[in-house]
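INTERNAL AUDIT FORM
Audit reference: QA-55
Scope: verify that the stored structure record matches its stored sequence.
Auditor: D.O.
Record contents follow.
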Amino acid sequence: MRNFNAVITGVGGYVPSKVLTNDDICKLVESSDEWITTRTGIKERRVLEGKNMGASVMGVHAVNDLLKKTGVNPAEIDAIICSTSTPDYILPATAAIIADKCGITNAYGFDLSAACCGFIFAFDNAAGLVESGRYKKVIVVSTEKMTSITNYEDRTTCPLFGDGAAAVLIEPTTENVGLVDAVMHTDGSNLKPLQMKAGGSVHPASHETIDKREHYVYQEGKTVFKVAVTKLVEVCEELKDRNKLNMEDVDWVVPHQANMRIIDAIVRNLDVPLEKVMVNIEKYGNTSSATIPICLWEWEKKLRKGDTLLLAAFGAGFSWGGICLKWGYDPK
């Protein structure tokens, strides 16, 4: 039995100011605003501009926003987990760079790579640290520069992705709020439909891999769509059943913002009203692991202490997971 619950006590976020519209995309590939909007629900996305600007830049903004809003001294942070598929470097960890630039000097940090499920997986890990009683303040920051691995010659994938970051502070509480339950899955047999083919130790960067444009996200859309809908609905149903919840008991569903058609399918299958679903894909596109915390950041003022949230994500791996939590505070 847990002595503590792990609760989110603050949210910070950041999206770059540069907006890339569907009309801008249509200047790069043969497409149209109607085609993109109908198939994805996306109207625009954000792009981090500037030389030598990596994912850590957005992560620093998000963490600093979090620290300012919560009034927490950076020296009090015990650990920082960074979920990202677009790290600044293969090594060192982007978490270390963010910690240094935010003045977090008494914490250890590491990166977690789980594609679009990164925040869900990182949250579960952070909750375990807090529930152990050994750690009092843990930050999960999800930061993704997806435009750096987007092929702007591929009309099927280039409209999908954008850049952004968000961070949450997780602390222990004895109140009946915080993490209720978590369900996580990975099926490594489904490698091929969603991956970046080169850049790792199997296919290190070479003239050949660059010429073949293998350092960008590759996706077989129909396969991913079908499995994503099935698994996201299953994980939400499992969380409901395990915790004896009806959809009437759930105040907010927070799905990964990958494609509006996927979100619509989840809404239909769960029979949940759209007004109880956090959706901002039209503004930001798919920011991979950052989509769910960016939603929490945008909806923070609408959340009330004790609200029941279902968070669910699906991504490369294939990996998928869901979290049931009770929100920990009223708007400040």
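Auditor finding: record pair retrieved intact. The longest helix spans residues 221-242.
Action required: none
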